[in-house]
Write a structure and sequence with these properties.
7 strands, alpha/beta, globular, 7 helices, Rossmann fold
């Protein structure tokens, strides 16, 4: 299968579903990562151009761990809106990846960029199949199934499916650790340890399965239903 994970920011996919992506990659599925914004305001010291360049390089290094193509939309951080232009960017990015399964943000997540990215992922799953909506890549022959990723901290999210990532947690942590500029930013902003925070959520979700680490998901349950939890690795 072709798998696409869509994050609002350069580190979101790693934080929320990289263990699951690693399981797909291990079994031979093709994984792609799409990032909507360029992270160009997340630094206590660098200017916008410098931090955007840094975060792009970090995202590339992370994706390379899974040998996953990186689809980079480059929209300004904190200013992701559901507009015609942005929707067309999402449609083109999804078409380029040609996914059977998409992972997107839960529209209830804490950050406005997360909520917008999640809603646009849902909103674009049918238009990617519409012939008369033209982008550089061809329209898709099927509606991809969309899984909603957990929220940051697991707040306001009721999981319906879990993936045991105990065996791929080290890969997930290695991918997230590529984002050193974000780790610096979050220490500056919140005084938090980035990887430790991620691990605590995975431990919490692992308790539901009786395993050490897990990631949690929900299916988008709107017409047409094109898949289900059986599509998870």
């Amino acid at each position: 299968m072709n798998i696409l994970a869509i994050g609002a920011h350069p580190d979101d996919v790693e934080f929320l579903c990289a263990g699951t992506l690693a399981r797909y990659a291990q079994r031979g599925d093709h994984v792609s990562i799409m990032v909507a914004t360029n992270g160009n305001v997340g630094s206590p010291t660098l200017n916008q151009e410098e931090i955007a360049t840094t975060r792009y390089q970090e995202a590339l290094a992370s994706a390379e761990i899974l040998e996953a193509p990186l689809i980079w939309l480059g929209i300004d951080d904190e200013f992701l809106f559901n507009t015609r232009e942005t929707r067309l960017q999402f449609i083109e990015g999804i078409r380029k990846a040609n996914p059977d399964v998409i992972f997107g943000h839960a529209p209830s997540d804490y950050h406005p960029d997360h909520r917008t990215a999640g809603q646009m992922t849902i909103d674009c799953r049918i238009p990617v199949t519409v012939r008369l909506i033209e982008t550089a890549s061809a329209y898709l022959p099927r509606v991809p199934h969309v899984f909603l990723m957990d929220t940051i901290g697991g707040l306001d999210f009721v999981p319906e499916a879990f993936v045991d990532i105990t065996d791929t947690f080290a890969t997930k942590a290695a991918m997230l650790s590529q984002h050193q500029s974000q780790a610096t930013w979050l220490r500056h902003l919140y005084g938090m340890d980035y990887v430790e925070f991620m691990e605590s959520l995975c431990r919490q979700r692992g308790q539901a399965l009786g395993v050490r680490y897990a990631e949690a998901f929900r299916s988008v349950a709107t017409y047409p239903i094109t898949g289900g939890s059986y599509l998870l690795p």
